[in-house]
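Lecture 7 notes: from sequence to structure.
We start with the chain below.
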Amino acid sequence: MNTAFWRWFGVAGVSALIGATAALAAGPWVWNLAEAGATSSPAVAAANVQTTPAVANVTVTDGIEQVVKKVEPAVVGVVDYTTQSPDTWFSTSTSGSPTESGVGTGVIFAKDSQWAYVVTNNHVVDGADKVEVVLGSGKHLPATVVGTDMFTDLAVLKVPVADVKNVTPVQFGDSDNLQAGEPAIAIGTPMGLDFADTVTAGIVSAPKRVMPVEEPDTNQVLDYQTVIQTDAAINPGNSGGPLLNIAGQVIGINSSKIVAEGVEGMGFAIPARVVQNVAYQILQTGHAVHPAIGVEGYSLASLPAVLRPDVPVDYGVWVRTVTSPQASAAGLRPQDVIVAVDGHTVQSAADLRTYVFDNGQVGKTVQLTVYRGSQKLTLTVPLTDMNQVSNAPQTAPASPYGN
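Predicted structure tokens for the same chain:
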């Protein structure tokens, strides 16, 4: 949680993470988050016969109302607080105190005998010194960050289950089989707690849109993720809230939107399949399990000329250090330049990471094509876990979906 990272994307420099609504200054960024097929109600089926637009509109509205009644109790506000250093010029205070710095959204997705678990965006809680969950009643509950993952922009919080004993966790839907044009409903806390439980509706504009994920402070592209595009209104503060189908299942976690003059209705959500896998991994281990080659590397094109090795290419990933014993044993060395993995050309560090995330798994081997000076080599390297810091609870509910 204390990592200064977060992920999402910038499109032509105009995309803006719909992150938490900052109380004093707007903040974060955008980006990479299951549902069983929705069953049609008799009213919806009737709309397929011969009916008027007015009747069809009533049917859709009725469906949205039922979704909201079902899911809204599980949707919560997420408030983060940061400690401001005392201003030595204008203040006599000797110590800073936590002040509200942002508001986002979360949704309760699991419970055990002690805790209720909330999934939200990593950028909503990134850098926070204290986090609170706000129920629909307005009650503020101290929340503990179980774990975060900047690469999928997801975080899991926990609150005492006794405080939400009457709340039913949401169900995930099948985000792999979404169709453009099907209904999409968003519930969240846009622009702060005064607008808690705001409901907006639209459609799935595109079920699989590939967008870059950026590190929030440097805007460096970390990798690329497939996300759900929707025209349901997504505003600052909606981050971490659910995107739902007409059956009331979570198909995604809202994370970002494109902000630019003349642009309307381009919001994005992390697919539910990714959400459920990462959230349950965090519950079990305190971090998401991402396969990695085991190097610290940089895009060759981003290096200043003085650091560039003498290789016959101007693309690839320059290896600064080898961090994995397995990669070292496989022959990978500092100053090597990785230009392909499993025959897939690697233009940048983001390309390499995206391929490994999407196609690899811990323990699996990949074939790396590297240049060591002018010498071209092929190395077989086993993938390892990124091994992010774990602060998982001693016990946590097992994923009903598997990993």
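Points to note: The CA atoms of residues 321 and 334 lie 5 Å apart. The chain has two domains: 1-45+52-84+99-288, 291-385.
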